[in-house]
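User: Need the bound-state model for glycine:
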Amino acid sequence: MSETVLLIGGGGREHAIARELETSEADLYACAGNRNPGIARIADGFETLETTNPKAVLEFAEDVDATIAVVGPEAPLQAGVADELESAGIYAFGPKEAEARIETDKAFQRRFMAEHDIPGCPDFETFDDMDAACDFVDEYDGDLAIKPAGLTGGKGVKVIGDQVTAEEGKEYIRESDYDRIVLEERLIGEEFTVQAFVANGDVRTAPAVQDHKRAYEGDEGPNTGGMGSYSDATTALPFMTDADYDDAVSIIEATVEALEDYRGILYGQFMLTSEGPKVIEFNARFGDPEAMNTLPVLETDFLDILTAARDGDSLPALEFAPQATVCKYAVPEGYPTDPEAGAKVQVDEESAGDALLYYASVDERDDGIYTTTSRSFAVVGRADSITEAETIAEDALEVAGEEGLHMRHDIGKPELVQQRIDHVEELRGE
Ligand code: AMP
Ligand code: GLY
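Assistant: Bound-state model below.
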């Protein structure tokens, strides 16, 4: 039977998913709030709609006779898009609203880990009384991470002792309008991501990736959705051992088992501490940028994974090309605090050279491509080593026109990777 896949979402992650489906047998349709020129070119049809409106998504899915839907971002999952599609008999690769709470409600997520004895959970307390939260900051022996319980696009967390002092942290708690927050032990170490394809009780993990959340070079500045990322030609990253990777996979497996009926991508973000990997958070979808590291080296047909998931079959074993990848994002000037939306961007696609170019949250109009308040486009280098992949990505960025855009040139450079290795060695007392 020929498949018609509906892809929901218009960022770099979804452009990477679209590329996977471009080479498969499926007909592809896509919808997003912004018209992503990369996805629009690949898809047989592209509809601009509010993807957090489940009825609007379902209507488009029915119009195009979708047989499978892939939900890219978290907001539609939270809005119940997978539930709506399912109730109309369209298989959605992505969790229902209730299961997506593993990402969309950080208080739920921590309690879930604690209740099910899932390893790698930091000490935490949840609060809906902000005065009580401030008292806890005063009483707690050590630094805390302050996390709004709901979605903030990766930008809501403040870490005491890193980005803010205890006083500034309390001010943040008092002045932000959050209903519920989580205060948790500050974890010290190096972050990494492991993404798993999950369905029918199967868990198939991808190589580890390291994202860079901070806006400026040298890990300075505010947290962002992610400025860029790298993966190695092996499963682990240069600062980790295979045992660290396996520990992270065991945590994901324990989580899937406890969730019982989870399907879609389960993304674990870990801190490699002196005591091994601890969970920073789970996401109910691919990472963005991490999808752009993982999917270009995935050699298994993505459509085969989707159809196996839908048909209740065992998921195929995943094959990944033994290549390193480096992804660098170009974001609007001022991102994330004061991004300049509506600026025209020039993207000279021919100049991307050996790099892959992924459009993200830009909007294609009749007279050109414009920035939104989110990340604009990414380039990805693939090669035998991180260093070579970095050079390919960097060369592509240089020629892609930097007008009005900002990027982190340090991501994937040997000095930064070495700092990560030294950091972990220092923590482990090696
Ligand atoms: P999140 O939105 O949960 O991904 O958090 C954003 C960033 O905050 C993470 O990438 C970490 O750098 C940092 N962070 C979150 N939780 C902690 C923690 N418990 N300890 C230290 N840093 C954290
Ligand atoms: N790269 C972090 C995220 O997708 O949430």
